[in-house]
Amino acid sequence: MKSLLLALSLFLSAAVSAQAQMRDKYAEMPGSGDVSEARVVDLTRQMVTQLHLNEAQYIRLRAANRIKLARLDEIQWEYKANPGQQHSKIAELEAQYEAECSRILTPTQLSVYRNQQQRDSVPTQPTNEGGIG
């Protein structure tokens, strides 16, 4: 009985120690954790509204969005000291994501998606309403 209790307490202490080490690992590298499900759902729901996705497309895009957001977080954390390399890695990720979208979306939906991306990437000129100049 004593040996069973000793073995159980030894196992429990090892499990607690391992859990503490995992928390330390995630504290050191915040981009490696799971992506917020709310961010994934929000991004996917925006795409549903814009592109009129069916349920199968929604499910596949939600998975692709989860991967994209997780990888984006990793890239931003990993290359925060090197903005040039960070930008190139993000561009590579976007190309991979667009290739995945082209496998999921219909040609019409893909055209709408690309037009939306172009419109979002072009900065708008600020208007000078009621100001001097």
From TrEMBL:
Q: What is this protein called?
A: Uncharacterized protein
Region of interest (Disordered), residue spans = 112-133
UniProt lineage = Bacteria, Pseudomonadati, Bacteroidota, Cytophagia, Cytophagales
In its UniProt entry, the species of origin is given as Hymenobacter elongatus
Organism's domain of life? Answer: Bacteria
UniProt entry keywords in alphabetical sequence: Signal
| Signal peptide start and end residues | 1-20
